[in-house]
Design a protein that fits this description.
about 150 residues, alpha+beta, Ribosomal Protein S8, Chain: A, domain 1, 4-stranded mixed sheet, elongated
C-alpha cells in the first residue's frame, strides 16, 4: 500500500489577502504592450493624446475588412495623411468578435486589432509612424489606435 502524502493548508479567513507572491504568466494585453513601448514623441502632447484631448485630423475605419483588404488601405491612408502634413490620425479596427472555434488551436479574437500595430512598424509605413497608442474611450477605446506621424 503506497504512502499518501497529506497536504496541510493554512486556514483562510474571509477577506484575507493571498499569501503567495507568485506572478501570473499571462501574456500582457495589447494595450499594455503599446503603453510599455518607449515614448518617441513629446511627453506633453502624448499625455493630451492619451486623455483624448487632441482631436485626430483624419480617421479610417477598417471594420468588416479582411486582412488582405485592410493592409493596402492602411498603407494608402497613412502615406496620404503624412503627405498632407497631418500628425495625428485614428485607425479604427473594432474589438473583434468571437467566431466559431471548432479546432484544437484557439482562434485569436480581433485579427485586425492585433495585426494593425504590427503593420504600423513595417515598411513602407514604419518609418512614417512615430508613435502608436490605444485610443481614448471617446475615440473608440480598445477598438482604435492613435497613430502619431513624423513630419515630412
Amino acid at each position: 500500500m503506497p504512502a499518501t502524502a497529506t497536504v496541510r493548508l493554512r486556514p483562510f479567513e474571509l477577506g484575507q489577502k493571498r499569501r503567495s507572491t507568485d506572478q501570473h504568466s499571462l501574456a500582457p494585453t495589447l494595450g499594455e504592450m503599446l503603453s510599455r513601448a518607449p515614448l518617441q514623441m513629446d511627453a506633453k502632447t502624448h499625455g493630451k493624446m492619451t486623455r483624448g484631448k487632441l482631436a485626430p485630423e483624419a480617421r479610417i475605419d477598417l471594420h468588416g475588412l479582411t486582412l488582405p483588404q485592410a493592409h493596402p488601405e492602411l498603407i494608402h491612408f497613412i502615406l496620404n495623411a503624412q503627405a498632407l502634413g497631418m500628425r495625428l490620425v485614428l485607425v479604427i479596427t473594432g474589438k473583434g468578435k468571437r467566431g466559431d472555434d471548432h479546432g484544437p488551436i484557439p482562434q485569436r479574437m480581433g485579427a485586425l486589432r492585433h495585426q494593425v500595430p504590427q503593420w504600423l512598424r513595417l515598411p513602407p509605413i514604419g518609418p512614417v509612424v512615430l508613435q502608436v497608442t490605444e485610443a481614448h474611450v471617446r475615440h473608440g477605446g480598445g477598438g482604435a489606435y492613435y497613430v502619431y506621424l513624423r513630419r515630412r
